[in-house]
Design goal:
about 35% strand; mainly beta; 6-stranded antiparallel beta sheet
Length: about 300
Amino acid sequence: MCARVSKLVIATAMMFIYVNCGMTKDWGSITIRPVEGSYEVVLENSKIRAVYKKSPNNWAGRHPTCMVEFYYKKIEKELIENGRWDDVLDPLDHSKRPPRPLHHYREALLSAEVVYDGRDRKTVRLKWKNSEEEVSIFPDSAVIQIDYLRWYVLITDWPNWPKGEDAYKEQMFAVYGADKWHRTYDPNDTERTPGVGYHKMYFNHADRDADKQGGKDPADGGPLNYKGYFIIGAYKTATGVGYGRIIPVHRINVLILWSYRAWEFFPTGKERFTTFLFPVSEGAREIIDTGKRIAAANPTLRQ
């Protein structure tokens, strides 16, 4: 029985977890409840808590449903006692269309359904008007797997952190291969700093706007590629609390980095693709090291 379960983990979940023969289905939970014309979806296991619900932020007159909480349970008490709850109020895993002429954001969830509930993983399918995805948690793992079935032009992770010219003093990004890449957002690096905005991409293999940055970047991601993945994230400089994500390089045309605090990525093609999201409490090193472990355990079709 244990051998059969282990094979299922490798073939379907493709996660770097060990399945205990005596494990029951009670290792975690996915709860769904209707709230204000949408749904609140809470995914929990022994390590993490993730919550999808209407964002408190007003996006072009709307409050879209996205991941608004994501954190290690081990730091929950500290976050509450020290008044640092904003550290983990992260509007992550959001989808939108860029402004032509106006932004269009993913709105309320139309449906949420648990489609798999087993010893090896638990999966919920989330549907919006213009996007659909499956979100999975695993026993004793801090990693969430997101399988995108449909999406609305681009996907965004927008941590709820301060803005402005001094933002880098309070939050910072992390990306594998950044030290060898020809762009950066380090304010002290005047030779490579491109600024922010849609014409200032961090990685750009698309035709659009490539001429403004010296031509297309290599399709394989160059030094940003680790075993077929981009490893990206952001964190609070004072505490190290933040998140990381790995994304298959061959499915991304553009990566945009906004003022040290937010990532956007433009997938290419229409086929289903998988990314992995994880919380951190120790900053850049944890983002890179955890991302590398996940990438090594989950080979992509193209490396």
